[in-house]
Design goal:
The chain is of the alpha/beta class and about 270 residues long. The protein contains ten helices and nine strands. The strands form two sheets. The protein has a seven-stranded parallel β-sheet with strand order 3-2-1-4-5-6-9, sandwiched between helices. A two-stranded parallel sheet has the order 7-8. The structure holds NADP nicotinamide-adenine-dinucleotide phosphate. NADP nicotinamide-adenine-dinucleotide phosphate binds next to helix 1 and helix 6.
Length: about 270
């Protein structure tokens, strides 16, 4: 048996599920992780049968401090060599910053950043030993935009993750390890309903809403090529370029039309 695996966090739905299936279609073995065990169990069966690869899973809540270590120990105990680590799990908190509890914010930060750092740290040594490894971080176009009033810490955390990915590249590229920060725009998944912002998504024009299968394919191909930053689709490549060059006042005015409510004063 090939003992090399791709570990995908947040693999029970949306972009993570499509990334898992796309890797499987290319013959990669998978370790799936997320909180919903029944879905993971079902996916293990379906994906391994469809693609004739090895699939295993571990249920873990990444808002808990111990989860990254538990995932690492699980892989070690089974002799799974993680060649590609996909840090994808995520959600957003819809409420304005002044009314959220610190506990909510800390859990959010753990899922979207601390767990990413801990998992990368834990699996990096194996990659260094093998002189090869790939890390994918599902960031967002929000990393390039001004922080919004809904999902207050979401954009800042994604910017931090892009910088973290950049740091991995500058420190470890020379020994064969690459990190790819994938920055999708609006993608049709459970993200908006599970983050309490489905209304916002419903108001976004159709041309800005992308298919998760398409995003996953680009994310995987760019990661395998060792691209440092991947911005799926031409629409969002143009938007990220504009975000870097246009004045913020123009951005806010345009945004009122394309993504209403995102920058409204909530008090
Ligand atoms: N959809 C978009 O428009 C969009 C745009 C840019 C970036 N992104 C990013 O894409 C990534 C994937 O989101 P998605 O759009 O695919 O959303 P999704 O369909 O809601 O999937 C989120 C995944 O994360 C897992 N997850 C959530 N909280 C978790 C926790 N505490 N511990 C472990 N796993 C957890 C969920 O599984 P369980 O519920 O089973 O735990 C699920 O598998 C996120 O990082 C998000 O920020 C999304």
């Amino acid at each position: 048996m090939n003992d090399s695996f791709v570990l995908v966090t947040g693999s029970t739905s949306g972009i993570g599920l499509e990334i898992s299936k796309y890797f499987a279609s290319k013959g990669y073995n998978l370790i799936l992780t997320a909180r919903r065990e029944t879905i993971l169990k079902d996916l293990k069966k379906k994906i391994s049968l469809t693609y004739d690869i090895s699939v295993d899973y571990i249920s873990a809540d990444l808002s808990s401090e111990d989860s990254p270590k538990n995932i690492y120990r699980f892989c070690k105990s089974k002799g799974y060599n993680i060649e590609i680590l996909v840090n994808n799990a995520g959600y957003a908190i819809p409420d304005p910053f002044h009314i959220t509890s610190m506990d909510e914010e800390e859990k959010f930060l753990r899922v979207l950043s601390t767990s990413v750092i801990v998992l990368t740290k834990l699996f990096l040594n194996g990659m260094i030993k093998n002189k090869k490894g790939k890390i994918m971080i599902i960031s967002s176009v929000a990393a390039f935009a001004p922080p919004s009033t809904i999902q207050f810490l979401y954009g800042p955390v994604k910017t931090f993750m892009n910088r973290f990915s950049e740091g991995i590249n500058s420190s470890y590229n020379q020994i064969g390890i690459t990190s790819t920060a994938v920055c999708p725009g609006y993608t049709i998944t459970n993200f908006h309903s599970s983050s309490g912002i489905q209304d916002e998504m419903d108001r976004v024009p159709k041309f800005l809403k992308k298919n998760s299968k398409r995003i996953a394919k680009i994310a995987v191909e760019d990661t395998l090529k060792g691209k440092k930053v991947s911005i799926p689709t031409m629409t969002y490549k143009i938007i990220v370029f504009l975000l870097k060059v246009i004045p913020k006042s123009i951005f806010f005015a345009v945004n009122k039309y394309f993504s209403p409510g995102r920058y409204d004063n909530k008090i």
